[in-house]
Amino acid sequence: MRLDKFLKAVQLIKRRSVANEAAGEGIILVNGSAARPSKEIKAGDTIVIDMWNYRKTVRVNEVPEKCCFLCKLFLKTPRKNKALALNGICLHF
Asked: Are residues 52 and 80 in the same domain?
C-alpha cells in the first residue's frame, strides 16, 4: 500500500493530501530514509513522522487491505455504526 494511503487509512494523518505533501517535503521517514508518497509500505517497516510539533514513531505490524481500518472496526461492533464495507469498497455515511 502507498505511504500516503497507509497514513490516512490508519489515521496517523487526517487527509491523504496532507500525507502526500508531508512525504513530498521529506518530513516522513521510512526505515530511516526520507520517503516519497508512492513508497510501498509493508509489514516490519518503521515510519517516523516529524511535522510541526507532532512527532510519532510507528512500527507497521500489518498493512490494511483495500477496506479501510475504520470499516473493519465498525464491522466488528454492533450494527448501529454507520459504516459498511462491500467487496473491499468503503461506504461511509
From this structure: no
